[in-house]
Design goal:
Elements (H helix, E strand, L loop, with lengths): L1 E13 L12 E4 L6 E3 L1 E2 L7 E3 L4 E5 L6 H6 L9 H9 L9 E3 L2 E3 L7 E20 L14 E8 L4 E5 L2 E4 L6 E3 L9 E2 L7 E3 L10 E5 L4
């Protein structure tokens, strides 16, 4: 599992037939704060933290999937742990069953069940100079091979876009997002951010890099 904090710049187009003139497209920023994240779940009843129109561009400020304590224990200097990550771990109590800190929900004006949401991933920037690689018992790519936990902090060269995995070993970076999705059908209630389903979710699709487009079904107004 290779995780890093990213900035995502996307534009959204609701493909529903729209009535009347649409407002001029805007660019909006959604910071990750205790009041703007859904920690570990998708839920049609969750209160939107941002309203946008078809064609708007949104800059999402996203966070790593690890705790400040865990990062520092693994060797990250305290001044490199983002303050908003500390704030969210301290203040957010409504969380789970998954572990992803998701930005949103974002309400797309005019989107109705049966429509398709077109998400154009325009740009992805690295927000911090490190990622991490980890495994544990019954988890990861070799779940039965190692009866202990291990985490490795991987420095990132943001100018050259490579990960310095070990002396003499550099890995080219092609950042993408693990969990992206829409509100599930109302009848589903709260669903975990981890397993993908009709709402998309934790697809971990490494092809969803900058320049690609994701199409999602709209289940909830």
């Amino acid at each position: 599992m290779h995780r890093a904090t990213l900035f995502l710049l996307v534009s959204t187009l609701c493909l529903a037939a729209q009535n009347g003139a649409q407002p001029a497209p805007k660019t909006l920023v959604l910071k990750a704060t205790p009041k703007t994240v859904a920690w570990g779940y998708y839920d049609a009843k969750a209160t939107p933290v941002l309203h946008i129109h078809s064609g708007d561009t949104v800059v999402f400020d996203t966070l790593i999937t690890n705790s400040p304590t865990g990062l520092e224990r693994a060797g990250v200097p305290p001044d490199q742990v983002q303050q908003n990550l500390r704030d969210i771990f301290k203040e957010v109590t409504n969380k789970g069953p998954g572990g992803h800190i998701l930005n949103g929900p974002v309400y797309v004006e005019g989107a109705e069940p049966g429509d398709t949401l077109e998400v154009r991933i325009k740009k992805i920037d690295l927000a911090i100079p490190y990622a991490y690689n980890a495994f544990g018992p019954t988890r990861g790519f070799l779940p039965e091979d190692f009866p202990y936990r291990k985490i490795k902090i991987v420095p990132l060269d943001r100018k050259r876009m490579v990960a310095k995995f070990a002396p003499g070993i550099e890995i080219p970076l092609h950042p993408f997002f693990g969990s992206m999705g829409v509100a599930p059908p109302m009848a589903y209630g709260r669903v975990s951010s981890a397993p993908p389903d009709v709402q998309a979710g934790n697809m971990d699709n490494k092809e969803l890099v900058a320049g690609t487009t994701l199409y999602l079904p709209v289940w909830t107004k």
